[in-house]
Amino acid sequence: ACAEGWYYEVGRGSCAACGTGTACAGFGAPLRLSPGHWSPADDPQSVFACAEEAWCPGGEVGTCAPGRTGTACAECEVGRVAGDDGACVACEDAASARAAIGLIFILVLPLLVYWRARKVDR
């Protein structure tokens, strides 16, 4: 069993000290990451701070927020794009939003032209 602040490293068969961005309960508990940090599953000692805390929820090594992937969860998964808030959304969702904005513009523009023309005629 490992002391608090240490975790059991299965590959080495011994206890290893917890580093920055990690949380270790000791007593054989696995390494856990603090929110805003990420490490690859095959190298849990290499801990990276994420650009946005929301991208890296913490917990198990190798875990990213839904739709995110890559080192420090910095990329969107294939078929997804980063929205204004940084969350990765399906490309269809982003395209639908752009289409809706375009449709609103197309419908509102003639009304504005008509309203302006009526105002000038008076």
UniProtKB/TrEMBL annotation:
<keyword id="KW-0812">Transmembrane</keyword>
<feature type="domain" description="SRCR">
    <location>
        <begin position="1"/>
        <end position="92"/>
    </location>
</feature>
<protein>
    <recommendedName>
        <fullName>SRCR domain-containing protein</fullName>
    </recommendedName>
</protein>
<dbReference type="InterPro" id="IPR001190">
    <property type="entry name" value="SRCR"/>
</dbReference>
<feature type="transmembrane region" description="Helical">
    <location>
        <begin position="97"/>
        <end position="115"/>
    </location>
</feature>
<keyword id="KW-1133">Transmembrane helix</keyword>
<keyword id="KW-0472">Membrane</keyword>
<dbReference type="GO" id="GO:0016020">
    <property type="term" value="C:membrane"/>
</dbReference>
